[in-house]
Amino acid sequence: MLGLMQDWQLLCHRILDHAATQHGGRQIVSRSVEGPFHTTNYAELRVRALRVAQRLERSGIKLGDRVATLAWNTWRHLEAWYGIMGIGAVYHTVNPRLFPDQIAWIVNHAEDRVMMVDLTFVPILEKLADRLKPIEQYVVLTDAEHMPATTLKNAVPYEEWIAEVDGDFAWKEFDENTAAGMCYTSGTTGHPKGVVYSHRSNVLHSLMAGQPDAMDVGARDVVMPVVPMFHANCWGLALTSPMAGATMAMPGGKLDGASIYEMLDNCRVSFTAAVPTVWLMLLAHLEANNLKLPHLKKVVIGGSACPRAMAQKFQDVYGVEVIHAWGMTEMSPLGTLGSLKPEYAGLKGESRLDVQQKQGHSPFCVEMKITDDAGNPMPWDGKTFGRLKVRGPAVARRYFKDDAEILDAEGFFDTGDVGTIDRYGYLNITDRSKDVIKSGGEWISSIELENLAIGHPKVAEAAVIGVRHPKWDERPLLVIVLKEGQSASKDELLAFFRGKVANWWLPDDVVFVREIPHTATGKILKTVLRDQFKDYAFPTAAA
Ligand code: ADP
Fold this sequence. Notes:
Elements: H1 13-22, E1 27-31, E2 37-41, H2 42-58, E3 66-70, H3 75-85, E4 90-93, H4 100-110, E5 112-117, H5 122-128, E6 137-140, E7 156-157, H6 158-163, E8 179-185, E9 193-198, H7 199-209, E10 222-225, H8 237-244, E11 247-250, H9 257-266, E12 271-274, H10 276-289, E13 298-301, H11 308-317, E14 321-327, E15 334-337, H12 342-345, H13 349-357, E16 367-371, E17 386-391, E18 413-421, E19 427-432, E20 437-439, E21 442-444, H14 446-454, E22 459-469, E23 473-482, H15 490-497, E24 509-512, H16 526-532
Parallel strand pairs: 1-11, 3-4, 3-5, 4-8, 5-6, 6-7, 10-11, 10-12, 12-13, 13-14, 23-24
Antiparallel strand pairs: 1-2, 8-9, 14-15, 16-17, 17-18, 18-19, 20-21, 22-23
The structure holds adenosine-5'-diphosphate.
């Protein structure tokens, strides 16, 4: 017997219809790439998204065709997403921080037919254009007045391009399992891999993300996604915010501390989300200028581990609640969020921070397990490490144009992360499986050591890698970038760890460097560091 409910397909453009109907006047304020702030609302944004859809269709873009965007978070990028999805085409966000070779590779692999590009990135594409074979037209996200002279094929200014149609158009209807968006994982080794979201997965992910114990976004919020739309599906915020009817503040291309502060203050932002590096810049700016954050209530920090000192500062100095989150491109991307369940809600001070150092618990739609290398489940005791595997309707089951099986027999995807889960379901990521340090048969968490090191007042950035050791197989090496103008001895830094971790976890040595290499999404490039120090000999190695 089947249920007798309506067949209402979970299509992403229905989110924008809802926002325009129920929250039509709610604003979307953007820092435009041209410079000035720009304000629109959901009702206007929907009208323009329909024009994008109609204009794409006139260009012959059909169901399943890929349309690339190489753009910052602005109202134009947002309406472009909805316009693309509204005819069943697929938005493909390209990360401008990738190496040019990788950009060329993924555009060809995705077979993008149209490229929508911000002014900032026109020069990058001009250099690459003859290698971007499938692109038939470049739409520059600006107006005629700001349109640069460019060699890009069939380049048109976006405003003129969408003005060529009248907007008298209806969204297409299709199956909710139709592809909606694509995002390539940065792939520190080998080629990037294409993750393909469906309308259904995006809608379910947004419903999940908005929940009170997830991001808790509502119509009274002003949401600023600092996380770029090109990073891991914007952590869902390009869909969750309109679904909730929240006001949006889009930071454009300026992500430095002063610019982010200006936007937080001008727009009275109540909710924001980004990687730790962004918050380091903001906190430095606040401190240097003696500023406060009176409007901000909540900040979601993820993408890499949130340093303890950062959570503490946001909460104790600025009165902003920190939600530590973990996820990945393959998960649309949210996996866990660190809101406090009743079992932990009463905690204060250091013990609250202890819980907030964990990456949190999974909302409905994400199932987790940890296993040993043979796939046997490990206990949720907060101590036993295991490979983290996940399952759910917004988790990838395959990569684009790749037949490789990526799920285990129970349908779980191996995240490549290693962690513990405690009895209340809180995940603690201890490492990437390839970064974990294997010392005498035991595992040492590089992330935990890095978090501690970052808490030292003289340390700007820290990385810990496993380096060959004749007796222990691998031992931790601490790589440090000191803050501007600071000096410190090795012993001083190592002393800082004593009493905070088991003695056998203490790094065997410290090296000071000027810079630590990063991936396109701001993560430490451990492969490069490991290569750099592969011949390193520990002073303890002779013993
Ligand atoms: P990219 O490398 O392109 O940024 P993802 O955003 O998909 O790709 O990266 C996901 C990975 O980032 C996770 O598998 C995990 O290793 C790491 N990560 C994400 N959030 C956290 C967090 N809060 N703490 C520790 N690691 C995290």
